[in-house]
Design a protein that fits this description.
Shape: globular
Strand content: under 5%
Distance between the termini: 33 Å
Number of helices: 14
CATH architecture of the largest domain: Alpha Horseshoe
Helix content: 55-70%
Structural class: mainly alpha
CATH superfamily of the largest domain: Tetratricopeptide repeat domain
Largest sheet: none
Length: about 270
């Protein structure tokens, strides 16, 4: 089994809760409370709770933008891009300037193999707000997923200038550098992130990947073991060694074919 630098979540079902017929004020309270609980569950990775809670919120308020965005972001993480795209499009039909929905739609499109459409969405979003560092990060992800690593890195650098402490930007920048054959520069970006607030398994496995691309297999294993058992860490190292032996273009293409590979998009607001 191939393991990639990025870890993905499992699948959950959308089980909308049945509610009673409440008045407008009560429905508003139920909507806000459900969205709050759903957001907390999603941010902690508990999608089994988050998805039905968003469904409950939408029963109370069918046009609730916050619930649609949260549910769409959940579907993205769960590998359901078609369902996510439908929600993001619905939001954009009513709020054309909603950047979170536009980023989310772009991420769904790239998952569905619609890279050029995703790029158009993000180009429009950047033109609307050139200082939206989350959009610049998402733009870099889309370009990386198209194999256009130099362009992706330029977008990441733009975002880092605006938000130097935003972990996803630096993590993705480091990953892109490692893929493109600049592992020492990648390590310089990623190693300082490990102890920072917001660093997670994706950051650590990106650093492990960068160490492997630099030929430092011992450090690769040490970092991998923080999230993987020994057998999985060894398998991942073997995979990284195979990638290291490939030219950049083939390495990039191989990673893009791996369904477990997806940079940290930060499609959420």
């Amino acid at each position: 089994m191939k393991l990639a630098p990025i870890l993905t979540a499992g699948l959950a079902l959308f089980m909308a809760a049945c509610g009673t017929d409440l008045g407008p004020a009560a429905k508003g309270d139920e909507y806000s409370a459900s969205v709050k609980l759903a957001d907390e569950a999603r941010q902690s990775g508990d999608f089994d709770s988050a998805v039905p809670l968003y469904g409950r919120a939408l029963q109370a308020k069918p046009d609730g933008v916050e619930a649609k965005l949260g549910l769409g972001q959940s579907y993205l993480t769960l590998g359901l891009p078609d369902e996510a795209a439908a929600l993001f499009r619905d939001v954009l039909d009513k709020r054309a300037g909603e950047q979170t929905a536009r980023r989310g739609l772009a991420m769904a499109m790239i998952s569905m193999g619609q890279a050029q459409l995703a790029e158009r969405q993000l180009e429009a979003a950047v033109q609307a707000d050139p200082r939206d560092y989350r959009t610049l990060n998402a733009y870099g992800v889309v370009l990386d997923m198209m194999g256009r690593h130099a362009e992706a890195q330029a977008r990441y650098r733009q975002g880092i200038e605006i938000a130097p402490d935003f972990v996803a930007l630096r993590s993705n920048y480091g990953l892109s550098l490692a893929i493109a054959g600049q592992p020492q520069e990648a390590i310089a970006q990623l190693a300082p992130l490990i102890g920072s607030r917001g660093a997670d398994g994706r950051v650590r496995q990106n650093l492990a990947f960068a160490y492997a691309m630099n030929g430092d297999f011992e450090n690769c294993l040490q970092v991998s073991r923080r999230d993987l058992d020994e057998a999985s860490a060894q398998r991942q190292l073997q995979y990284f060694m195979q990638l290291r032996a490939l030219p950049v273009e083939l390495r990039s293409a191989e990673l893009r074919r791996n369904p477990n590979f997806f940079p940290q998009s930060a499609a959420s607001g």
